[in-house]
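re: ur question from earlier - yeah i can do the single chain one, its not a big deal. heres the input i used so u can compare w yours
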Amino acid sequence: MGQVCGGESSQNYSITNVANGYSKTIWVRVVGERKHVTLRNSPIGSANTSGIDFTPIYPGAFESFRLPSNQDPDDPVYITVLTVDDLIMFNSVPQLENQSVIIDQNGILRNTMTGFIWRDTNGNDHDVEKSIDDSED
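and the output i got, formated as tokens:
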């Protein structure tokens, strides 16, 4: 069924979950203002590229990013995803506040169903650990 996300919400902040169904560790930043990333001889492994903080997310894991709520509910948050080999997968991609995403096994950014971490809006389950468990049966 996939992991269900808790219903924590408030008018003071928004939560964007980013799940890693990809085969490599990804480095993620979720911010309220659009800032494009350019890598200039700064390895992402330092977790800080040009003064911009990124969070590592290992394959099969997810992280919750809590940001102050924007004044206008139509204002997006912006997601940047890098790989450990400094590939920019997604650069400041706008997402609705409180809309969580999955990076699937093919490196595609997918929106999640409301209340789920690993199930996309088409109903597909991208939980890496569940796939491993199913293949062992």
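Confidence is low (pLDDT under 50) at residues 6-10, 132-137. not sure if urs matches, ping me
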